[in-house]
Design brief:
By secondary structure, the protein is mainly alpha-helical. Helix content is about 40%, strand content about 5%. It has nine helices and four strands. The longest helix has 22 residues. About 40% of the residues are buried.
């Protein structure tokens, strides 16, 4: 569905450490995030940052919804990339975790950034990686990536035959069914407390409704709606003060249409979730 893929293998993968010997200790006010929350990786990081209450310790620079460089990167990030790698040849893409002390990039790898936010900083927010939950969080992440994101792309791929699309849709529906069952007896995907798995799942559901739905036929989208607990959960988190300020439907749409070369299908006209239309300014949100 998308012919433009500048978000390839990350070029920078240093980690925030527990102490000065790591080279990048978790020092407040040293680092900065550069995010374009219209993209799913940046959206996950922005929500995690808000949940953890890191606004003071780790500032965020918000980038345009649609990358403005000819190569699919962000012009504002080009100086950082060039300072970090001489004559850097690729696009200057987000997310970026930078070091204000050196003016260089620490990491562009979203999973590492997410984990370091949750584990390395002395954050006042909830524990998004509770003890003993790592494998379950990773399992939800794989289900979202393979069973929802990738399956939805295959189900809506232009030029794919009916059998291939139906097989992909079956994988997608099984995955949504498994997630629906998880929410039958608990408010969150791993139980009674919100974790990193919920951030991952919620952004996946946003992408499914605001991006992938545009390439599915109407019958397929109606089958997606038949998971009431899952979509009720999505609406509930959409009202959460750490989630809501970062959900910009117009920005997601502009980014999608700027990058996508797939054909629009009848499912685009069917709304799954009535996402909030007016969102609070992030500067006015003080807590999770």
């Amino acid at each position: 569905m998308s012919a433009i893929s500048p978000e390839a293998v990350p070029s920078f993968r240093s980690r925030i450490g527990r102490d000065a010997r790591s080279g990048y200790p978790a020092v407040p006010h040293r680092y900065r995030l550069h995010l374009s929350p219209s993209g799913p990786s940046c959206l996950r990081i922005a929500i995690t940052h808000g949940l953890l209450g890191l606004d003071e310790a780790l500032p965020v620079t918000t980038l345009p919804a649609v990358p403005d460089a000819p190569d699919g990167g962000h012009l504002a990030l080009r100086p950082l990339y060039q300072a970090s790698a001489h004559l850097y040849p690729g696009p200057a893409v987000a997310p970026v975790l930078s070091d204000d002390w050196t003016g260089r990039i620490v990491s562009t790898h979203a999973p590492d950034i997410l984990e370091d936010l949750g584990r390395r900083f002395d954050a006042p927010g909830p524990r998004l990686h509770p003890d003993g939950a790592d494998r379950r969080i990773e399992a939800v992440g794989r289900l979202c990536e393979q069973g929802v994101d990738a399956a939805a792309q295959r189900a809506g791929r232009s030029g794919a035959g009916p059998a291939a699309r139906e097989a992909a849709l079956a994988v997608l529906l099984r995955s949504l069914g498994a997630l629906e069952r998880r929410l039958a007896s608990a408010p969150y995907v791993l139980g009674g407390e919100l974790t990193a798995a919920d951030v991952r799942l919620w952004v996946t559901l946003v992408q499914l409704d605001t991006v992938h739905r545009w390439h599915l036929d109407a019958a397929a989208v109606y089958r997606l709606t038949d998971h009431p607990r899952l979509w009720s959960y999505a609406r509930r988190l959409a009202a959460h003060p750490a989630f809501a300020p970062h959900l910009d439907l117009d920005a997601i749409a502009r980014r999608h249409h700027a990058r996508c070369r797939g054909e629009e299908a009848a499912g685009a006209a069917i709304r799954i979730v009535a996402w909030p239309s007016r969102l609070p300014d992030p500067a006015t949100v003080t807590g999770p």
